[in-house]
Sequence to fold (317 residues):
Amino acid sequence: MTDLTDMRDLLRDAPTNWGKWGADDEVGALNYLTSAEVLRGVAAIRSGEVFTLQRMIGDPKGDPVWPGRTPAERTMVLDESSWDGEGAPSYPGGLHYADDKIDAYLQGSTQYDALGHVWYDGQIWNGYDARTTVGGLDKASVAPIAERGVVGRGILLDMARYRGKENLDKAETFTHEDLEACAAAQGVTIEAHDILVIRTNFLKLFFDQGPAFYEGFCEPGLTYSPELVRWFQEREIPNLVTDTIANEVTIDPDSGFALPLHCALMRNLGVALTEICDLEKLAASCAADGRYTFLYAAAPLKVNRASGSPVNPLAIR
Fold:
């Protein structure tokens, strides 16, 4: 490991996009997704197949969440039994209905991070003061992302298949060069403004292993390097989408820091992060016909001042 004190040392010379879209910007690299990029995404549609990428909330086998968070709890408020006894609800005409609610972390399922979700050195995305997060995000919350939506050309990079594995292993890493090699093996090129959708199938282990999944928790994923950050900036990548809980290897093997790419990509470059996607059906379809690009469309829920929000992205092939 390198001898570094904190994130400021690691990212001291890292590139930033602060101010690129003005002092008031709150959506960062999503600004790359212009109407022309929407049409480029539409041009990737060939068969009209639609894939939803959200993992089920309340899966009978459990919901994978970041350690320390709890899965969503759904509570039935009204059902047919509510009309069994005296004092039952009464509506003209005899209407009965079901009603339920959930108690959940906003980032406890497939979700978008707000650009102000993670920071270091007292500043969030675009240089806003981290004190603007107190009691709720006044700047760079998920709401501006939800208001604009995210639509463009998606490209699946199936790292598990590329490495000949059913799923990547705990703490297994890959780089931007591996992404390029994976794309080449798939017969596709990563282009400027592509929404990167990376499959590891790591969460298969959550369903296979149960509670043991969290022992020595360290997900596979991209690992920090100055070259990788410059690659994201030069290719103007707007959105990184993965099927893991936190988009990157949990503990960087060189620095020993947790989630440095959340800081280098999201906090500094404004790259939107989308996590806990279910990519299995999409990946099987891409592998079957060799087409790995598609229209990607997503809109997280509009939650005022929130640090993240659930989403059900669409991939349309």
Observations:
- The first strand starts at residue 50 and ends at 52.
